[in-house]
Amino acid sequence: MNHKRLWSSLPVLAILAMILAACGGAQQAPQAPAATEAPAAQPTEAPAAQPTEAPAAQPTEAAEEPAAVEPGGKLNILYWQAITILNPHLASGTKDYDGATVILEPLARYNELDELVPYLATEIPTVENGGVAEDGTSITWNLVEANWSDGTPFTADDVIFTWEYCINPETACTNVESFANVASVEAPDPRTVTITFTDPTPNPYQAFVGPQGMILQKAQFENCAGANAISDAACQAANLAPIGTGPYKLVELRPGDTVLYERNPEYRNADSVFFDQVEIKGGGDAASAARAVCETQEVDYAWNIQVPDAVLLPILASGNCDAVAGGSFGIERIVVNFANPDPALGELRSEPSQPHPFLTDPLVRQAINLAIDREAIVNQLQATAGVPTCNILVAPAALDSPNTSCERDVEEANRLLDEAGWVWNGAVREKDGMQLVVDMQTSINALRQGEQAIFKANMAEIGMVVNLKAIDAGVFFSGDPGNPDTLNKFYADLQMYTNSPSSTDPASYFEGYTCAAVASAANQWNGTNDGRYCSEEFDALYEEFVGTFDPEERARLAIALNDKLIEDNAIFPLVNRQTPQVKLKNLEGPTYTTFDSVLWNIHEWRRTS
Amino acid sequence: MTQYILRRVLIAIPTLLVISFVVFAILALAPGDPLAQFALNPAIPESTRERIREQFGLNQPWPVRYVKWLQQLAQGNFGFSFSSKSNVSDLIWQRLPQTLQVVGLAYLIAVLLAIPIGIISAVKQYSLFDQVATFFSFIGFSVPSFFTGLLLMLVFAINLKWFPIVYSSTLEVKDWSSFWQQVRQMVLPVTVLVVQQTAALTRFMRSSMLDNIPLDYVRTARAKGLADRVVVLRHILMNSLIPVVTLIALGIPTIFAGAIITENIFRVNGLGQLLITSIQSSDTPVVMALAFIFAVLTVTFNLIADILYGVLDPRVRYT
User: Fold this and answer.
1) Helix B284-312 and helix B62-74: axis angle, to 10°?
2) How far apart are CA B173 and CA B179, in angstroms?
3) pTM recorded for the entire structure
4) Predicted local distance difference test score (pLDDT) of residue A33
5) DSSP states along A291-304
6) Least buried of A495, B185, B190, B301, by fewest C-beta within 10 Å?
7) What single string gives the DSSP state of each residue in A205-245?
């Protein structure tokens, strides 16, 4: 009998349970989730450096009196890529640097104007204040008085240790390149660090600066330099929970999911820190992250909203949030292959020894450049997050060349091709029995496929047929020498991707266009010059740039290097991408940055209502 | 019986070895690079990336790596994750509770819903109830979870604001209000999974009942004058449940596999999400560990299903 009752009452029970659940949900509905305390459309003071031109709705009504907001509460941040490790020297992506930024500090960081701001240093050393040697062979930093979150004092030993930790080859430190030119790091006293360089350097601010320069606590990582870095259990634990000097300290990291931080009472400006807790949740996708800020207001801030305008604009229109975009996330560009990718060449395919049959003709390249509709690429796809550009170097702003222009002129492009001997045959131009047909490859990404489509339509107007190819990003960017579809091999005529200099000094960025860096089978396709552009004039300019110390002269040369590439049409810059972040209107502090983590100033973030 | 189980366990060992070999080979031959994120970063040049690959042991040929992986496994060690540089087993333990909570609960609800719906559908075949149930189960079958997930999110989270979009894994259930918060954040992902799983099980339950209804023993029971309820619940149901129980047992390993798409859409930090992000970032040790655990569970529950079958149906004998 019991059995029977049970079975017959099951459906009733199930339905009851559902009704109960539904009612519960409904009752809860008017309450906002505990984590967010966000009244919707309250006007906020404009944050100091608010860079956005977001088409968000206007504040609806003025508040009677902006009551002072009590510090405290929780700051909810959403990343669609989840943080997996908090030791920035073993990071596997931008997200990890950002996660570490909340806890750890370098000597100095870059602000939204690309200027250095001292963090664990009292001031930025310069030649004028005697911190940088006039011959560029050393730099001396004075350290601030600060404590680690465990209460022990921060000293020059920690700085020296971080250097030793990172340059140990067995540590496999991600940031070892920032110490490439460092001969020694010494401490004349516990509050001073002197870095001596192997060669005189025009840019002494590479070591211990920005996301790659965050300083580890010697006491915590002492036994972790070398092979122990990831194999020792204590070091594994330390990598997931570093002790820092920053505004917040770690409560819990769930790798690949959530990081929870709390106020660090040992922080030197602890009183100015607004939030009690910060949580960075990872996973999901960019569009729903934007919705969680703008539409449901569950979170305060969402990172890197890389979605086409068609999706983003309606979300921003809710009026609860602002898009924060500016600086340069990178230059979306089309790279020209100067080598011949014809599969018939077999092993010699795309080798620098095989010149491209027609893209080596400057007139053809110029015609392509003139025919590209940059305005359409920006306005139709990414007006919130990009501006058309003709330069390959746009940041720092002082290095953004004023000398270039790239107005669209299809008539002139057609005239150039006529001049070069390409004659129309139906919809395609021909010359010497060769058709003007190119393959163009890029990674799979809705935005990029949109850009490809516009480019293809543009080229049709000058009689060039473009065959499009989209490759999985994991393959395209992998550098795998065994795979034919990498951007390094470049088995296509044109390819498109985003790149940018990693620091305010563009030396290594421009190195990627020198003859010495040409990618070929000989260097396992590891040369950074994937387009195989090679110009004696450019190389000479580059040599001059590298050997110049005077900042003004360097700036002039950097612009000249940019102009040379553009004049040669070696590369077609399209868009200066300013990947937007999205924040609630009542959150003050988030800003854009080009050379540092977006969380660089998290100690200043606060709620305004 | 013992002999049967022993034999099955022994057969399982080579099966698992072959599975692990195939998965490892696929992962090794598939393109991808754990450092792809840094591909164009001039601050992290190829030499640095090469050094990191060495640290991960990726510079060795993959058959060598496979043998090393097996040796580690024999010591009960799944190795360390490339992206978090911590033990894979820690990562899995961290995520198991969320998966069991969300996917396991969904499975439970699906079973509890599917069995009664299946029974009523079969007993009242072609009735309005049956038509409606059939309609919904075909919808559940044919609409993929990435669609139902987004649809529910749009309607109930974004427009009605009843439920949150973001699943908080740091939420601690301490009192009624945090319990409600937990329930609210579980409703949408659980619903998506329930819709799918109920659909399949309902159809199975219904057809299994229909197979039994016209049989002679049912007629005999009715002829003896037993009440309709007794005939249906005692006689038909008990016999119809045999294949369904097997099916349910076989479905249990999929709970542990998590729900890749649903977990990802709702940001539930379960095993499915771990699997997909690890595949995307070429985190071989994590993918291998998960694939291997799923393989073990599948083989185990196959065995359990077979044994259950014998327990439920005395006609089945193991030799």
Assistant:
1) 50
2) 5
3) 0.84
4) 35
5) HHHHTS---SEE--
6) B301
7) --TTBGGGGPPPPHHHHGGGSTTHHHHSHHHHHHHHS---S
List the structure tokens of A502: 């990693």
C-alpha closest to that of A567 among A575, A559, A576, A556:
A559
Q: Which amino acid is at A559?
A: I
Phi/psi zone of residue A569: left (φ > 0), alpha (ψ -120 to 50 degrees), beta? left
Between B43, B163, B170, which is nearest A212 by CB?
B43
Distance from C-alpha of A470 to C-alpha of A496, rounded to nearest angstrom: 10
Q: How far apart are CA A217 and CA A165, in angstroms?
A: 11
Q: Which of B54, B55, B89 is the best mutation test for A, with the most CBs of A within 10 A?
A: B55
For A473, phi and psi rounded to 5 degrees?
-60, -35
HEC profile for chain B? CHHHHHHHHHHHHHHHHHHHHHHHHHHHHCCCCCCHHHCCCCCCCHHHHHHHHHHHCCCCCHHHHHHHHHHHHHCCCCCECCCCCCEHHHHHHHHHHHHHHHHHHHHHHHHHHHHHHHHHHHHCCCCHHHHHHHHHHHHHHHCCHHHHHHHHHHHHHHHCCCCCCCCCCCCCCCCHHHHHHHHHHHHHHHHHHHHHHHHHHHHHHHHHHHHHCCCHHHHHHHHCCCCHHHHHHHHHHHHHHHHHHHHHHHHHHHHHCCCHHHHHHHCCCCHHHHHHHHHHCCCHHHHHHHHHHHHHHHHHHHHHHHHHHHHHCCCCCCC
In angstroms, the separation between the Cα of residue B139 and the nearest Cα of chain A is 20
pLDDT tops 50 at residue A44: no
Q: What is the DSSP letter of A59?
A: P
Residue A367 scores a pLDDT above 90? yes
**Residues of A with CB below 8 A from B41's CB?**
502
Contact (CB<8Å) A239/B86: yes
Map residue A574 onto helix, strand or coil.
Answer: strand
Closest partner residue to B274 among A256, A474, A475, by Cβ? A256
Cα–Cα distance measured from residue A61 to residue A351, given in angstroms and rounded to the nearest whole number = 64
ipTM for the assembly: 0.87
Q: Are strands A494-499 and A437-443 parallel, antiparallel or unpaired?
A: parallel
Quickly state the pLDDT bin for A11 (edges 50, 70, 90). very low
Give the model's pLDDT for residue B40.
67
Query: Where do the domains of chain B lie, and which CATH numbers do they carry?
Result: 2-74 (no CATH), 95-312 (1.10.3720.10)
Q: With contact defined as beta carbons under 8 Å apart, do A519 and A525 qualify?
A: yes
Q: What percent of chain B has pLDDT over 70?
A: 98
Q: Residue A551: what pLDDT?
A: 85
Question: Would you state the pLDDT for residue A504?
Answer: 86
Q: What does the alpha-carbon distance between residue A494 and residue A479 come to, in Å, rounded to a whole number?
A: 17
Which chain B positions have a beta carbon within 8 Å of A316's beta carbon? none
As beta bridge partners, residue A254 has A258
